[in-house]
Amino acid sequence: MGCEVVTKKRQGIINPISDCQPAGGQFAAIGMKDCIPLVHGGQGCVMFVRLLFAQHFKENFDIASSSLHEDSAVFGGKQRIHDGVMTLARRYPNLRILPIITTCSSEVIGDDIEGNINICNKMLKEEFPDRQIYLVPVHTPSFRSSQVGGYAECLKSVVKTIAKEKVAPTGKLNVFPGWINPGDQAELQHYFYAMGVDATFLFDIADFDSPIMPDKSIHTHGRTTVEDIQNSSGAVGSLALARYESFAAADHLAQTFEVPAHKLDTPYGIANTDIMLRKISEITGKPIPESLVRERGKAIDALQDLTHMFFADKRIAIFGHPDLVFGLAEFCVELEMKPALLLIGDDSTRYKRDPRLLAIKEKADWDMEVVCNADFWELEKRLKQPDYKIDMILGHSKGRYVAIDANVPMVRVGFPSFDRAGLYRHPIIGYRGAVELAESMANTLFSHMEYTKDREWILNVW
Fold it and tell me: What spatial distance separates the first Cα and last Cα of the chain, rounded to whole Å?
């Protein structure tokens, strides 16, 4: 019994688990108001990412492309940057933030992004002397890291570019939630409202679950403003809730403006949510209200109803980005399940030292395998082994064919999830998220038992 951490031995990728760095940069960028990212690369680097966003959120987002072609690969793409920036500035009078997100092609040819930004700033000042448009360099070569690294790079670069000086104390708390869904965002905002804490989310994606208003307008955009980012330097502290996506930005504010950085794990499950609420109370001096204590109690009761009878000793495979995978593994341990296979889609050496993984290793009395730089072939290969028993898979929709072929029930979590309705608006973090996710897992097991005509489940639920 024990935990083995390995790295995929093959050089090639067969059906990737994670998306590329530019995808992560684009997801972070659309979390800001009056922002249109310019992706410096081929049109496909935007088209396919926008397709993923549309599949997941069922909404459209404004993302531009510099549309590099063969001539730019030979002579450089600086003119494409200049044309893209000026076209967006002319076409969108409310534009205030313009991240320039690189791709593998623009990084390989060595385009000087910072130098071209200086040129573009002069051009903007000449043509629009009364406007301030923040051009943000975001280096995201897709031949290394993954969507996680791209998100982290964009977040840190935006903070460095826009929060240039220390502002007066705001009394607010910066919150860096990382890669979450609008349902998770609403759950976090619920906690801060219940505790009477004024928080600024970087980035606020609540309106990705966009309302259609009486005037027939549709509001699908990020809600974090330029002023929110500027004022982050005067906050009472930064609460970073995603180790691989937000810690770097919190560290920058701490080192540059002495904003205390409070770095926690994403609040999946009961224990991590407890830690987050206690930390918020510690930072702000606000007590945890009785209403949240009751929510916690109801969640524990709901999980208890399911754990011993249906979940205990079930072997789980989890894939996705690392904060999600490790957080869900902790949650499964809370449910007396056995996370037997964890698959992470990039090759960072930090994952082997993740405190959450080390804590699970100490508790594990079952065989457990962690595969870094994994793809879906690693999952399929193991599921084909007759002795490699997996009772359930947790992961995003791209793993559905492996689950179908192996006849293993699968619960959709993570990005992108597009073959189940409305998952983006349902939380999986916090107390209510724990209940919703656990009940979804139980119902998936029940449905699978019906589908396979396993009549034993009737006795269990009766």
Answer: 34
